[in-house]
Specification:
- 45% of the residues lie in helices and 17% in strands.
- It has twelve helices and ten strands.
- Strands 7-3-10-9-8 form a five-stranded antiparallel β-sheet, with helices on both faces. Strands 4-5-6 form a three-stranded antiparallel β-sheet. It has a two-stranded antiparallel sheet with strand order 1-2.
- A hairpin with a 7-residue loop joins strand 9 and strand 10.
- Helix 6 packs antiparallel against helix 12.
- The longest helix has 21 residues.
- It is elongated and about 90 Å long.
């Protein structure tokens, strides 16, 4: 276990290196921070931190920089999430409240996160498997053609055309709509199949084929495999940190292009709360020089997807974590009210 003083020295090194982009020396630390000890003592503490693997000497200068291990300890023990100011909170709320639908919410969230953090923003669409049904609408387009509209608790809207085996009147359609919603509205998607399995039995024989066809289309919509998708924004922000990446940022850009890589990483972060993956903690080699800060978002206190940012390990962790947490909270509020 590190002593309290050495933890303070590590915190000061991280803060200075993130702020100045320059390796940090003992003289600078004692001048900038009230550590209450001499430069010689700070040098001894830095030597101990280096021996423990928390800081490293990038070249022959006297300065040190944090390692992945040092950043991890900083995030776990030393970083206090920086709260957003009142004007920042109002700006977030006003920007997101103008969204007209789920696609707009996601697009605005990506743009906002990239601007607030000056990193690459990543927003996962709400997963159907973790959603609940808000309403199922059935609209007659022709005597034997129906439009099925599925609306989720996250504001997601899925539309499907249903070609019925026989004409289906408005009265029968209204009856099916009412019975269907009485069973599935407010229920989890995973519960729907067994809730509707006997529904055709309550209709006249000539209508059962159409009812079964509509239900089949609904169930197919619930289990679509292509539901997992991401929106990424602010990739150009990485060019401001080109010197933070060994040799080139190309591996990072290539990893960001592979959505399946990011989806897998977000999926591995099981905790819906704040998660920070630093450097080599990211399994994909292309992201070994980055940190990923993510958090779950959703309505009703239940996370339905993740959002976050990707940036260099030399990151303002308290500020980034504060921005990601605040944006997730407002997105959840908007989904709950939509």
């Amino acid at each position: 276990m590190l002593s309290e003083r050495r933890l303070q020295v590590l915190r000061a090194i991280v803060q200075d290196y993130v702020g100045t982009e320059e390796p940090v020396g003992s003289k600078a630390l004692t001048e900038r921070h009230s550590l209450g000890v001499s430069p010689a003592t700070v040098r001894n503490d830095m030597a101990a931190l280096e021996d423990e693997g928390y800081i490293a000497q990038p070249h022959t200068s006297a300065g040190r920089i944090p390692t992945d291990k040092g950043y991890r300890l900083f995030v776990d023990k030393l970083a206090e999430v920086k709260p957003m100011t009142a004007p920042e909170r109002r700006a977030i709320q006003n920007f997101l409240e103008g969204a007209v639908d789920l696609d707009d919410v996601v697009a605005r969230t990506v743009r906002l996160l990239a601007q607030l953090t000056r990193q690459v923003a990543v927003v996962q669409y709400p997963s159907l498997t973790r959603s609940t049904v808000r309403h199922v609408e059935l609209l007659s387009l022709a005597p034997a053609r129906v439009m099925l509209v599925l609306i989720t608790d996250t504001g997601r809207v899925e539309q499907r055309m249903v070609d019925c085996p026989a004409p289906f009147g408005e009265t029968s359609l209204a009856d099916l709509r009412a019975r269907l919603n009485s069973r599935v509205a407010g229920r989890r998607f995973t519960d729907v199949p067994h809730l509707v399995e006997d529904l055709p039995d309550g209709f006249d024989a000539e209508d059962r084929g159409t009812v079964s066809t509509v239900l089949s289309t609904l169930l197919e919509t619930l289990v679509e495999e292509n539901e997992e998708r991401l929106v990424i924004g602010g990739t150009a922000n990485l060019t401001r940190f080109a010197h933070d990446f060994p040799l080139t940022i190309r591996p990072v850009l290539e990893a960001l292009e592979e959505q399946v890589v990011l989806l897998r990483l977000l999926g591995e972060m099981q905790n819906p709360g704040m998660t920070v993956r630093i450097g080599h903690e990211n399994a994909h080699e292309g992201l070994n020089s980055t940190s990923i800060v993510s958090v779950g978002y959703g309505s009703g206190g239940e996370a339905v997807a993740k959002l976050g940012v990707v940036g260099p390990t030399r990151m303002d962790y308290p500020g980034t974590m504060g921005a990601v947490r605040a944006v997730a909270r407002y997105v959840g509020q908007i989904l709950a009210e939509s």
